[in-house]
Amino acid sequence: MNQRRVWIADGCIECFWCQQLDERIFVRGPSGTEISGWARVDGRTSTNQQEQAPLNEERLSESELNFIRFIADGCPVKVIHLEGESMGSALLVAG
Ligand code: SF4
Question: What pLDDT digit, counting tens, does each position of 22-58 carry?
Fold first, then answer.
């Protein structure tokens, strides 16, 4: 199964857009936005850039998963990366 992932690349300017729209997934870390452990299968809170842990789809509704695309598209510096079934194709930033 193609599991869905979200991670934050370097360069977050801490505008808080993503955190305001979904504070269950996007949380404030010491140097920018991180992906909450609550929303990940590995339970860790970090940018998820290294771990590439899938989202915990048992906790997230389909509409919330789809909403991540909208949130990523609104990131002013495009550092929210998406991957996986029905998530990445339209918004995945190269690199
Ligand atoms: S929307 Fe982008 S720049 Fe703004 S806080 Fe979220 S990851 Fe950082």
Answer: 999 999 999 999 999 999 999 999 999 999 999 999 9
Assess whether the C-beta atom of 12 lies below 6 angstroms from ligand 1: yes
By alpha-carbon position, which residue is closest to atom 2 of ligand 1?
75
Contacts of 50 by beta carbon, 8 Å cutoff, 6+ apart? none
pTM reported for the whole predicted model: 0.88
